Amino acid sequence: MPGAGIYLTLLGDGGMLLSTAGKGPYRTWATRRRVRGDAVVESAIAMFTLGLVAELPGTTSAELAQVAADVAARLPGAHMCTTARLATRLARHRSAALPPSVVARLVLAHRRAGRRIVFTSGSFDLLHDTDVEHLNRARLRGDVLVVAVHSDALVRCRYGSRPLRPARCRAAAVAALSCVDHVTITDEEVPIGLLDRVCPDVCLCA
Domain extents for the chain? Predict the structure, then answer.
């Protein structure tokens, strides 16, 4: 709509593209299942609108819209995503952090399917906009994004009084982003052992 400061374009199986005046584009990713139908579109629009009305950042509203679309795509018939279904879906991320051995096995399956693996790590204590943008840009460089969240002990060693949130909560917040495929927790600032097991095509560790 002319004069609007924010646009959300639905890309079907490709996710969504958020365009905001004065900012670069922000992409979300649909889960690996065909996304189609009026209920999917309506769920995404409704959740995006609710997010903006609640004065959430545009990126957060877009991520919620993507989750709503993913939920609706899996429902039989033409059912929309309700707030209860959305809450259930988001609650899955509470146990999102996987053991390194599981991540390595999942990555092996991705590689056999011909997917390009991207790896990055960080503390993500408050998950600032810059963190979200970094993860979003990282995902654009491949097909699968693996994130290693720094453990509480490692964060305390680096920052003293931090972390403000335990590692499992920080991992859950990271995993809730549609650009992130797998999350684990590491005690190493540069997780050499995990990198040896994952062997990413692109490594964006600081």
Answer: 6-89, 96-203
